[in-house]
């Protein structure tokens, strides 16, 4: 993960997950103010679907998910109000 910007709880991060990484490279988490992410390369899958390069995804505030990368993946993520790990 590379943090590109942070202002208060708001963060913009870039994730690169290499092919062969552990399936749980992303831990299950909740988005206090939602989440926007743009898949730049590869695929991301979670409980809501499978997203590939060029897809822009919005998750509602208080949504919980455990995404996983499929192949070599690059994702740009915006957390408007931060993120919290959940069990």
Detailed description of the structure:
The chain has 87 residues and is mostly beta strands. The protein has one domain (2-85): Jelly Rolls. 0% of the residues lie in helices and 63% in strands. It has strands spanning 2-7, 10-17, 29-31, 35-46, 49-52, 56-59, 63-65, 68-79, 83-85. The strands form two sheets. Strands 1, 2, 4, 5, 6 and 8 form a six-stranded antiparallel β-sheet that branches. Strands 7-3-9 form a three-stranded antiparallel β-sheet, with no helix packed on it. A hairpin with a 2-residue loop joins strand 1 and strand 2. The chain starts with a strand and ends with a strand.
Detail the topology: elements first, then pairings.
Blueprint: E1 2-7, E2 10-17, E3 29-31, E4 35-46, E5 49-52, E6 56-59, E7 63-65, E8 68-79, E9 83-85
Antiparallel strand pairs: 1-2, 2-8, 3-7, 3-9, 4-5, 4-6, 4-8
Keyword list:
87 residues; three-stranded antiparallel sheet; six-stranded antiparallel sheet; Jelly Rolls
CATH homologous superfamily classification = Jelly Rolls
CATH topology: Jelly Rolls
**Helical residue percent?**
under 10%
What is the distance, rounded to the nearest whole angstrom, between the alpha carbons of the first and last residues? 21 Å
Number of strands: 9
Q: Summarize model confidence as the mean pLDDT.
A: 90
Summed up, the helix count is 0
Strand content: over 45%
- Estimated radius of gyration: 12 Å
> Main sheet, how many strands, which sense, barrel?
6 strands, antiparallel
Number of domains: 1
Q: Give, in order, the helices and strands.
A: EEEEEEEEE
Shape: globular
Q: What is the CATH-assigned architecture?
A: Sandwich
Would you tell me the structural class of the helices and strands? Answer: mainly beta
Q: Uncertain segments of ≥5 residues (pLDDT<50)?
A: none
What oligomeric state do these chains adopt? Answer: single chain
What is the CATH domain class? Mainly Beta
């Amino acid at each position: 993960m590379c943090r590109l910007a942070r202002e208060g709880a708001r963060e913009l991060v870039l994730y690169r997950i290499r092919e062969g990484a552990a399936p749980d490279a992303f831990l299950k988490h909740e988005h206090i103010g939602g989440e926007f992410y743009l898949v730049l390369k590869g695929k991301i899958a979670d409980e809501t679907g499978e997203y590939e390069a060029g897809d822009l995804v919005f998750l509602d505030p208080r949504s919980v998910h455990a995404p996983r990368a499929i192949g070599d993946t690059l994702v740009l993520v915006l957390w408007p109000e931060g993120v919290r790990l959940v069990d």
